[in-house]
Write a structure and sequence with these properties.
The complex is a heterotetramer of chains A (310), B (105), C (99) and D (97). Chain B contains 3 helices and no strands. With 105 residues, chain B is mainly α. Chain D is flat and about 50 Å long. The chains are: A mainly alpha (310), B mainly alpha (105), C mainly alpha (99), D mainly alpha (97). At the A-B interface, helix 1, helix 2, helix 3, helix 4 and helix 5 of A face helix 1, helix 2 and helix 3 of B.
C-alpha cells in the first residue's frame, strides 16, 4: 500500500509538471515519464497487457511523435506567451476542473458492490477460442468487431494525415530526411538494436495467444524499430504511393473482414469462428493485422508527404 | 481503501489536471499533451473497474482491459492526426497558435 | 527458522520495498534534472527514468509473481533507447535549422 | 540452499539500490553536465546490473534468466550510446554559449 501511495503521488507530480512546465521540451519529457509510470500502475492493477500497450504506445511512440513535433515548433514558443488567458478564466477553469475531479472521485468511491464483471463468462468460454490469454480472446473473438473497426480507424487517420500534403507532394516521401550521423554512433546502435527489437516485437506478438502480449503491442515495437532505422538512415521511408506499401496497409483489415464474412458460411454469423479451427483462424487474422498495424503506426508518426517523388 | 480505489482517485485527479491544461494552455501542442493526460486518467478509471471485477481465477475483468488497449490505439491515431494538422498549420502560416487571423495584421 | 512460504513472502516484501526505493531515488534525480538548464540534462532525465523504471518493473515482476512485467521492462529498455535517440536527433535538427 | 539464494538476492539488490542512491546524490551535487552524466552512468550500469544479478538467483528458468540479462544488456547498450550522444550535445550547447 505504501508503494502504491508513493507511485500515485509520483504520477500526479509528473502530470502536474507536464501541465506547469514553461518549456515544451520539458513538458514532453514529463509526458514520457507519465506514460512510464502509468505502465507501472497497470502492473500494480494486475493488467500486464495494458501495461505493455502503455509502455510501447502511450509512452514510447506517442512520446517520440510529440518530441519530433516540439523540436519542429521550437521557434514558435516565445510568441505564445501573449495569448495566455486572463486570471479570471484560469481561476474559473481551476474550479471547473476541481469539480470534475471531485465528481469522478465520488463515482470511484461509490462504485457498486459487488462489482459487476464479465470475467466469469470470459474465463468460461476461453477454451472455445483455443487461446490462453483472456484479453486477446476479448480482442480477437468476443469483441472482434471492435478490433476490426479499430484497424479501419487507424487507416482513416492515416488517410487524413496524407490528405494534408500539398498537391505537388502528393504520393511523395513522408517526413523530412534525417541528417547523416556525424561519427557513426547512431548507425552502430541502430544496426545492433533494430534486429533485437524486431525479435522482441515478434515475440510479444506471438506470446499474446497464451500470455500478456498481442498484435497491438508487437506491432508498436515493430513500428518503433522502423522509425529508428529511418532516424539512423539505415533505410528511408518508402513513398506513400508505392503499390506494395498500400497493399501492406490494407492486407490486415482485408483478411480480417474476409474471415469475418466467411463466418456466415462456416459458423453462422459475422466474425464467428467454428470451435475446432478458432485458434488457427485467429492466427490467420493476427499475422497480417500485425503487419498492417505496424506499417500504419510507423506512417502515422512519419506524417504527410513532404518530399516529392523523383 | 483498496489499491484499486487509490488509483481510481488518482485517475480522477489526472482527468481534472489534464482538463485544466487543455483549457488554459494557448499552445496547441500543449493542448494535445493535456488531452493525452486526460486519456491516461480516464483509462485508469477503466482499470479500476477491471481490477474490481476480478473473479473466476482472473486477476481482473478482461473486457475493460481490452477496451483500454483499443482506446490507447485510437488515442494515438487521434494524437498523430492532431500533430500533423498542427505542423501543417505552422508550415502554412509560420505560426502555431489557434488565434484567428483578424487579430493580427 | 522461517517456513519457506513465509520466507518467500518476506523476500517479496523486500523486493517491493526496493522497487519503491529505486523509484524514490529516480524521482529525486528527476527534480534536479527537469530544472535544466540545458537540453542535455533533460535527455539524462529520460535516461535515468528509463533505467529506474526497468529496475522497478523487474523487481515488481518477482515481488508480485507476474512474469509478464519482465516483458514490460524489456519493451521499456527498447523504447527508452528509441526516445533518447529521437530527442538527440531533435536537438541536432533544431541546431541545423538555426544555422 | 534456497535460503542462501534469498540472502544473495537481498545483498545484491541492496547494493544495486545503493548505486541508484549514489547516482541521485551525484545528480544533485555535481556542478556541470559532464560530471552529472558520470553520476548517471553509475546508476545505469551498476545499479540495474546488480538488481538483475540479484533477481537472477530467483529466476525460474533459462528463458526468464535470459530475458532479465537481455533487459540489462539493452539498457547498457542504449545507455552507453545515448551517453555519448548526450555528451556531444552538451559540448555543442556549451560552444554556442
Amino acid at each position: 500500500m505504501a508503494f502504491d501511495i508513493g507511485l500515485a503521488i509520483l504520477v500526479l507530480g509528473v502530470a502536474a509538471w507536464t501541465i506547469a512546465a514553461r518549456d515544451t521540451f520539458a513538458a514532453v519529457i514529463g509526458f514520457v515519464a507519465y506514460g512510464l509510470l502509468l505502465a507501472l500502475v497497470w502492473v500494480r492493477l494486475a493488467a500486464p497487457d495494458v501495461a505493455l500497450t502503455e509502455a510501447a504506445l502511450g509512452s514510447g511512440l506517442t512520446g517520440g511523435l510529440l518530441l519530433g513535433a516540439s523540436t519542429r515548433l521550437a521557434r514558435t514558443q516565445g510568441s505564445a506567451a501573449i495569448d495566455k488567458p486572463s486570471a479570471i478564466i484560469r481561476r474559473a477553469a481551476a474550479v471547473l476542473c476541481t469539480l470534475v475531479s471531485a465528481g469522478l472521485g465520488a463515482i470511484v468511491l461509490l462504485l457498486p458492490e459487488p462489482a459487476p464483471t464479465l470475467a466469469p463468462q470470459a474465463a468460461a468460454n476461453l477454451a472455445a477460442t483455443g487461446l490462453g490469454n483472456p484479453v486477446t480472446a476479448v480482442l480477437m473473438a468476443y469483441r472482434a468487431i471492435d478490433t476490426l473497426l479499430e484497424t479501419v480507424v487507424l487507416l482513416l487517420a492515416l488517410v487524413g494525415i496524407w490528405s494534408l500534403a500539398p498537391d505537388q507532394l502528393w504520393g511523395g516521401l513522408p517526413g523530412r530526411r534525417y541528417p547523416v550521423d556525424r561519427d557513426g554512433v547512431l548507425t552502430f546502435v541502430a544496426q545492433l538494436l533494430v534486429p533485437v527489437g524486431i525479435l522482441v516485437g515478434i515475440y510479444i506478438f506471438w506470446v499474446g495467444s497464451i500470455a500478456p502480449g498481442g498484435e497491438f503491442q508487437g506491432a508498436t515495437i515493430l513500428a518503433a524499430m522502423w522509425i529508428f532505422a529511418t532516424m539512423a538512415r539505415l533505410a528511408d521511408s518508402p513513398a506513400v504511393s508505392r503499390r506494395w506499401l498500400r497493399l501492406v496497409l490494407v492486407v490486415g483489415p482485408a483478411v480480417f473482414f474476409a474471415i469475418g464474412l466467411a463466418g456466415f458460411a462456416i459458423a453462422g454469423g459475422f466474425l464467428a469462428y467454428p470451435e475446432a479451427h478458432a485458434k488457427l483462424l485467429i492466427l490467420t487474422i493476427e499475422v497480417p493485422v500485425t503487419l498492417s498495424i505496424a506499417a500504419t503506426l510507423a506512417l502515422l508518426v512519419g506524417g504527410p508527404p513532404e518530399r516529392a517523388l523523383r | 481503501m483498496t489499491d484499486a480505489t487509490l488509483y481510481g482517485l488518482c485517475g480522477a485527479a489526472l482527468v481534472g489536471l489534464g482538463l485544466f491544461g487543455l483549457i488554459v494552455h494557448p499552445q496547441p501542442l500543449r493542448k494535445i499533451l493535456a488531452f493525452n493526460l486526460i486519456g491516461g486518467g480516464a483509462f485508469l478509471l477503466f482499470g479500476v473497474v477491471a481490477r474490481r471485477g476480478a473473479s473466476a481465477g482472473l486477476d481482473g475483468d478482461p473486457v475493460p482491459q481490452a477496451l483500454v488497449i483499443t482506446g490507447l490505439v485510437v488515442a494515438f491515431a487521434a494524437t498523430a492526426l492532431a500533430v500533423a494538422l498542427l505542423l501543417r498549420l505552422f508550415q502554412e502560416t509560420g505560426r502555431a497558435t489557434l488565434r484567428s487571423d483578424d487579430s493580427q495584421p | 527458522m522461517l517456513r519457506s512460504s513465509e520466507r518467500r513472502a518476506a523476500v517479496a516484501d523486500f523486493l517491493l520495498a526496493a522497487a519503491g526505493f529505486v523509484l524514490a531515488m529516480v524521482a529525486l534525480g528527476l527534480i534536479r534534472i527537469l530544472w535544466g538548464p540545458g537540453d542535455a540534462d533533460r535527455i539524462m532525465a529520460a535516461q535515468l527514468l528509463g533505467t529506474g523504471g526497468i529496475a522497478a518493473l523487474l523487481l515488481l515482476a518477482r515481488a508480485m509473481s507476474m512474469p509478464a512485467a519482465v516483458d514490460v521492462a524489456l519493451i521499456l529498455a527498447l523504447l527508452a533507447a528509441f526516445i533518447s535517440v529521437a530527442f538527440v536527433k531533435g536537438a541536432d535538427r533544431s541546431e541545423m535549422d538555426r544555422a | 540452499m534456497s535460503l542462501a539464494l534469498d540472502v544473495l538476492t537481498i545483498l545484491s539488490v541492496s547494493t544495486g539500490a545503493f548505486f541508484f542512491l549514489a547516482g541521485t546524490v551525484g545528480l544533485l551535487r555535481f556542478p556541470d553536465a559532464f560530471s552529472r552524466l558520470h553520476a548517471l552512468t553509475k546508476a545505469d550500469n551498476l545499479g540495474l546490473g546488480l538488481v538483475v544479478l540479484g533477481l537472477l538467483f530467483q529466476a525460474g528458468g533459462l528463458l526468464a534468466a535470459l530475458k532479465l540479462v537481455g533487459a540489462w544488456l539493452l539498457a547498457l547498450l542504449a545507455g552507453a550510446t545515448i551517453t555519448q550522444l548526450i555528451a556531444r550535445t552538451a559540448r555543442t550547447d556549451r560552444s554556442t554559449m
